[in-house]
Design a protein that fits this description.
The complex is a heterodimer. Chain A has a single domain, classed as Pyruvate-ferredoxin oxidoreductase, PFOR, domain III (Pyruvate-ferredoxin Oxidoreductase, domain 3, 3-Layer(aba) Sandwich). In chain A, 38% of the residues lie in helices and 22% in strands. Chain A contains 8 helices and 6 strands, in the order βαβββαβααβαααα. A 6-stranded mixed beta sheet of chain A has the order 2-3-1-4-5-6, sandwiched between helices. Chain B is an alpha/beta fold. Chain B has 4 domains: 217 residues, 3-Layer(aba) Sandwich (Rossmann fold); 101 residues, Rossmann fold, CATH 3.40.50; 175 residues, Rossmann fold; 83 residues, Alpha-Beta Plaits (2-Layer Sandwich). In chain B, strand 2, helix 2 and strand 3 form a beta-alpha-beta unit. In chain B, helix 1 packs across helix 2, helix 1 packs across helix 6 and helix 14 packs across helix 19. The radius of gyration of chain B is 28 Å and the shape is globular. The chains are: A alpha/beta, B alpha/beta. Chains A and B meet through helix 1, strand 2, helix 2 and helix 3 of A and strand 8, helix 10, helix 13 and strand 22 of B. Strand 2 of chain A pairs antiparallel with strand 8 of chain B, so a sheet runs across the interface.
């Protein structure tokens, strides 16, 4: 097994399912035989605030927090939150971003502008940039809440872990009545990444 | 069997494996999930939300006297509330093992201060264990119960946010049968702290501390990892993981027990390693005590901040000092912040809108409603601890006299009121205050994630139980005529609050609006409101409610004028997927630009 630890920073807005997504990734990589650690913040930060989850897997993981500048993959559920954490990436890091915007209060109030052309900006510095319409595709399936499963499908293409482990773990977290929808969401997510 | 557990889930599992019979807590980030996990997963353990942490520790003390292994869990500031029983509990010791879990919050992710509760262990003269991951969290809880019974002492286990809310792989084991029988056991001189008995017990606890020091020297959880003999780090808890991440080849003295400290072991480490550094978050707790032993570390708090949490980056930065090279940022622009916010449809928003309009001083409290201090509401003016809104308002009113009449308000939530607001309200009735207290009764403990309390009518396991009536309670405390209002009806809210502000007596106004995240409280939500773009003049009256569903969008050209010719620079937009239809924006719009999709406007919701 690889000696190196892989660092994934999941970032989004409270209510988007960031924590659930990183919970699922932890289970998947434990099943796949790795040591895993993850860390996030609950409580006050949940009320529409910034949510980040640090997820790490490898042979032996010490810190549950990723060192700034050592993130291998930035997994952003929202554009502005992707840009906010971009400086935590390694120079040759990967970015997987949901093509979705949620206005922060200062933008709603008309006091600040939502930053323009975020995907183009990020792509100018990071070759390995993937933009996925997670929220839009989930809405087409009939439930915006499945966006995180679309995105998990997309990120799953980056790793050599059996697709079945991913699906089994994801469905374990969800009630049976939404299994079919999320199976589709996962599969559509995988289709978004043609070459990892 | 292996399982991924958070630190909190691991603590709950540890309690289960240790044969704990009794668990009590008051919700508080980052500790809340410990008792929630116990209640959900381990049905043989009696579990209760107590009204506050003092009560939680007292019921746990009772359980211990009756022979049960018992655990109380709380956030760091909760220990302040429980400090009174705790300091003397140290004197009486235990029968069944007793553990107090403190979950500290360095960096103040969801707290009003970042006090370092290691100081409590020294203050109360009790042992404290500090796990560095989920596996140790489980192991140390079990060990803490053994130590508690062996040394006849309450034991503290300290975590931080990055233990409580970090997950790692944990090896599960079967529960054991605890050694102490459940029975009434009278030992008056041990359990009754009259001065004459307490003097005797003080001598006993000083002797106990010496024995615990001996234990600490031998304890396997205090371990040396000798690698590089020139560079060594003394550390504990989560800081160990951060240091190990950056310097895997240094030597370590990793302390699993942070009080009392093993002096001989520390001495041995200083002999074996040339340069010793101390890496710890917040206070220089290890450093001061190690320096007091006569040892001279190369570095400690001169390298690391007294404030905030550590992480691998800050450990490296501190250790390298001027030699540290920060990675170059890819982008430097200032981004719009994203502070937490009251939810769309939140019942607090209507009350805050009215308080802003009335220009009162709002003495605030601990809960979601503290967010009313942020723009655009800007309404909460003070806040220190649970229950302080009422005492703060009363004290101000007494000093201000006539000058403050009609201007002093205390704002407190239902769970917080039952936690620590009853006594100050009693004071207001007793000492004839004129302040107005607004009880924001959202029928749950909101900020920590919808926990039950004595006025919800349910226990932690969802059984129906007695439900406190706030009107009757208010009357009993000396408030002659407690009033209720519907916070989604702005006319009613303003009228009731204004009338109560005008009286010379103490007032209690109960805002009855359930938390919109508490689905069981609602029969249904309403259809989302809509902006009529032909009428909106962009005055921002609705935007300034601070509702996440409402945004202001600049317009130009043809759009910069209303249907009847008024100029405008922007218009409001309501995001239909976020709007539960509370109709507050409908009520503040003077231009009829916000339209209901219901047959007629509904001010609030159909409550179940």
């Amino acid at each position: 097994m690889d000696q190196i630890t892989t660092n994934i920073l999941v970032a989004g807005v409270g209510g988007q399912g960031v924590i659930l997504a990183s919970d699922i990734m932890s289970e998947v990589f434990m099943e796949a035989g790795y040591d895993v650690k993850k860390s996030e913040v609950h409580g006050m930060a949940m009320r529409g605030g910034i949510v980040t989850s640090h997820f790490r897997f490898g042979k032996k993981v010490y810190s549950p927090l990723i060192k700034e500048g050592e993130v291998d993959i930035l997994f952003a559920f929202e554009q502005l939150e992707g840009l906010r954490w971009i400086n935590h990436l390694k120079a040759n890091g990967k970015v997987l971003m949901n093509d979705h915007k949620i206005n922060p209060p200062a933008v709603n109030l008309g006091e600040m502008e939502y930053p323009k052309a975020i995907p183009e900006k990020i792509q100018s510095k990071f070759k390995d940039f993937y933009l996925v319409k997670g929220t839009e595709l989930a809405l087409q399936l009939g439930d915006a809440r499945a966006a995180n499963v679309v995105l998990l499908g997309a990120i799953s293409k980056f790793f050599d872990v059996n697709e079945g482990i991913w699906l089994k773990t994801i469905l374990n977290y969800l009630p049976p009545k939404v299994h079919e929808l999320n199976r589709k969401a996962f599969s559509i997510g995988r289709d978004q990444i043609l070459q990892a | 069997m292996k399982k991924i557990l958070s630190g909190n889930e691991a603590i709950a599992r540890g309690a289960f494996e240790a044969g704990v019979k009794f668990a009590a807590a008051y919700p508080g980030t980052p500790s809340t999930e410990i008792l929630e996990t116990i209640a959900q997963e381990y049905k043989d353990i009696y579990a209760e939300w107590s009204p506050n942490e003092k009560v939680a520790l007292e019921v746990v003390y009772g359980a211990s006297m009756a022979g049960a292994r018992a655990i109380a869990c709380m956030k760091h500031v909760g220990v302040n509330v429980a400090a009174d029983p705790f300091m003397t509990l140290s004197y009486v010791g235990v029968n069944g093992g007793l553990v107090l879990v403190t979950c500290d919050d360095p960096e103040l992710y969801s707290s009003q201060n970042e006090q370092d509760n290691r100081n409590y262990a020294k203050f109360a003269k009790v042992p404290m264990f500090e796990p560095s991951d989920s596996q140790e969290a489980k192991d140390f809880i079990k060990l803490a119960f053994e130590v508690s019974e062996k040394f006849d002492t309450p034991v503290m286990v300290r975590g931080v946010t990055r233990i409580s809310h970090a997950k790692g792989i944990v090896e599960l084991q079967d529960p054991i049968l605890p050694p102490v029988p459940i029975e009434i056991k009278k030992d008056t001189a041990k359990y009754t702290m009259l001065p004459s008995y307490a003097r005797v017990r003080h001598v006993v606890i000083e002797e106990r501390l010496l024995k615990l020091k001996e234990f600490a020297e031998q304890f396997q959880g205090n371990r040396m990892e000798i690698n590089d003999p020139t560079m060594g780090i003394i550390t504990a808890g989560i800081s160990y993981q951060y240091a190990k991440e950056v310097y895997p080849n240094y030597s370590y003295l990793k302390l699993g027990m942070v009080w009392p400290l093993p002096k001989d072991l520390v001495g041995e480490f200083f002999k074996k390693v040339k340069k010793v550094y101390i890496v710890e978050e917040l206070d220089p707790f290890l450093e001061e005590n190690i320096r007091a032993m006569g040892f001279k570390p190369k570095g400690g708090k001169n390298l690391f901040s007294l404030c905030g949490e550590l992480n691998p980056y800050l450990v490296e930065k501190g250790m390298l000092g001027k030699k540290f090279k920060a990675p170059k940022p890819f982008f430097k622009e200032t981004l719009p912040p994203r502070p937490p916010n009251l939810c769309p449809g939140c019942p607090h928003r209507g009350v805050f809108h009215v308080l802003r309009k009335l220009k009162v001083f709002a003495s605030g409290d601990i809960g979601c409603y503290t967010l009313g201090a942020y723009p655009p509401l800007n309404v909460i003016n003070s806040n220190i601890c649970m229950g302080s809104s009422i005492g703060g308002a009363h004290g101000m009113a007494k000093v201000l006299g006539e000058k403050g009449k009609g201007k002093i308000v205390g704002v407190i939530g239902d769970s917080t009121f039952l936690h620590a607001g009853v006594h100050p309200l009693m004071d207001m009735g007793y000492n004839k205050s004129y302040a107005t207290i607004i009880l924001l009764d959202n029928r749950t403990t909101g900020m920590t994630g919808q926990q039950e309390h004595p006025a919800t009518g349910y226990t932690i396991r969802g059984e129906k139980t007695h439900r406190i009536d706030f009107v009757e309670l208010g009357k009993a405390l000396g408030i002659e005529n407690p009033r209720k209002l519907n916070p989604w009806n702005l006319e009613e809210t303003e009228r009731v609050i204004t009338e109560e502000l005008e009286t010379d007596e103490p007032s209690l106004v109960i805002s009855e609006g359930p938390c919109t995240l508490l689905r069981r409280a609602f029969k249904k939500f309403n259809k989302p409101l809509q902006v009529d773009v032909t009428k909106c003049i962009g005055c921002k009256a609705c935007v300034n409610l601070g509702c996440p569903a409402i945004s202001y969008q600049p317009v130009d050209g043809e759009m910069a004028v209303t249907a009847d010719g008024k100029k405008r620079k922007g218009i409001s937009h309501i995001e239909a997927t976020l709007c539960p239809g509370c109709h507050l924006c409908y009520q503040v719009c003077k231009f009829g630009a916000i339209q209901t999709q219901e047959e007629k406007p509904i001010f609030g919701f159909e409550i179940a």
